[in-house]
């Protein structure tokens, strides 16, 4: 079956999240940023979007200045009390290389899928999530598990993480991505319009912007869909021009006043529900998987992508350029 690994991995997310909160967070909470620390969070691809979400949530909760960058764009002139890196493989060239440029003595901690990876060995501390690692090239559960860990360190109650687990379990009970791939009826949360739309724009504000960016990336990677993503309030500053019939504007979290009506006025569908934003991201995972299957695409092995970007001239010692 096309996308078998991605299917298994997206369905496992509630159990993975529970394990993060019950096992990993209590053991490693002391390594994660403390209130008041000035923090830099680094990641590539999905990990960058999770870094953005965590940074926004941490500042929103008043716990300290937090910046999120890709490693190559991180400013070298700023000082931080702690640097957090997120990397599924622990071998991505940019993530490993940035360690050389950090000031000596700055505590570093990596959230990694592979505890034996080069990055895990190079940082001061590693928080391993091997049970969240994936066989699919397209990330689902590692990215969300890493974000669950980081958001959980801010306080699970404040950010509704228990609700995220419950909402996702309920969602997955209603969905049947396997049937959708085989051509059968999709579950109620994914009607035909969402599975056939020509174009998607994902929106979010605050910490929900990171998941909106991630949703757009998942659609592009998995099923080669035409997707864009923006801060919610920026959408009317130009990007709304793309809205129209057979297109979807998908809001993560609360929508700005008047936006739904304005989008619907273009003929586009405005999608916004009261599920937790991370449950809504799983819904996008399922839509991407079903759309990929309908087009004969394999999200476990999407074109031009691999599990880790390792540049030929920066292959870490101890690896052969593959994961």
Indicate the topology.
Elements: H1 4-11, H2 13-28, E1 39-43, H3 46-60, E2 66-69, E3 82-87, H4 93-97, E4 108-112, H5 118-122, E5 125-128, H6 141-159, H7 161-174, H8 177-182, H9 192-196, E6 199-204, H10 209-223, E7 226-231, E8 247-252, H11 259-264, E9 269-271, H12 277-294
Helix pairs in contact: 1-12, 2-6, 2-7, 3-6, 3-10, 7-12, 10-12
Q: Could you describe the 3D structure shown?
A:
With 323 residues, the chain is of the alpha/beta class. It folds into 2 domains: 4-155, 3-Layer(aba) Sandwich (Rossmann fold); 162-294, Rossmann fold. The protein contains 12 helices and 9 strands. The protein has helices at residues 4-11, 13-28, 46-60, 93-97, 118-122, 141-159, 161-174, 177-182, 192-196, 209-223, 259-264, 277-294; strands at residues 39-43, 66-69, 82-87, 108-112, 125-128, 199-204, 226-231, 247-252, 269-271. The chain has a 5-stranded parallel sheet. Strands 7-6-8-9 form a 4-stranded parallel sheet. The chain is globular, with a radius of gyration of 19 Å. The two termini are 23 Å apart.
């Amino acid at each position: 079956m096309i996308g078998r690994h991605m299917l298994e991995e997206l369905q496992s997310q509630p159990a993975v999240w529970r394990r993060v909160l019950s096992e990993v967070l209590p053991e490693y909470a002391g390594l994660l940023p403390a209130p008041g620390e000035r923090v830099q969070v680094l990641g590539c691809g999905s990990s960058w979007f999770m870094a953005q979400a965590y940074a926004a949530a941490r500042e929103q909760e008043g716990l300290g200045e937090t910046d999120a960058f890709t490693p190559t764009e991180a400013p070298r002139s700023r000082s931080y009390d702690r640097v957090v890196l997120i990397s599924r493989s622990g071998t991505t060239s940019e993530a490993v290389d940035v360690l050389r440029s950090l000031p000596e003595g700055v505590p570093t901690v990596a959230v990694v899928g592979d505890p034996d990876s080069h990055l895990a060995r190079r940082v001061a501390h590693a928080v391993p999530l091997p049970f969240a690692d994936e066989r699919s090239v397209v990330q689902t559960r590692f990215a969300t598990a890493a974000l669950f860990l980081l958001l959980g360190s801010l306080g699970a109650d404040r950010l509704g993480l228990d609700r995220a687990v419950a909402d996702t379990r309920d969602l997955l009970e209603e969905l049947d991505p396997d049937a959708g791939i085989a051509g059968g009826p999709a579950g109620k949360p994914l009607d035909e319009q969402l599975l056939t739309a020509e174009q998607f724009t994902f929106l979010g504000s605050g910490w929900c912007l990171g998941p909106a960016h991630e949703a757009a990336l998942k659609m592009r990677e998995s099923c080669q869909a035409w997707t864009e993503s923006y801060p919610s309030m920026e959408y009317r500053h130009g990007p709304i021009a793309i809205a129209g019939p057979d297109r979807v504007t998908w809001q993560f979290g609360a929508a700005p006043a008047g936006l739904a009506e304005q989008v619907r006025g273009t003929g586009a569908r405005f999608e916004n529900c009261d599920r937790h934003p991370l449950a809504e991201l799983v819904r996008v995972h399922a839509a991407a998987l079903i759309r990929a299957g309908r087009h004969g695409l394999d999200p476990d092995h999407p074109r031009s992508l691999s599990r880790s970007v390792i540049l030929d001239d920066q292959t870490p010692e101890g690896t052969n350029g593959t994961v």
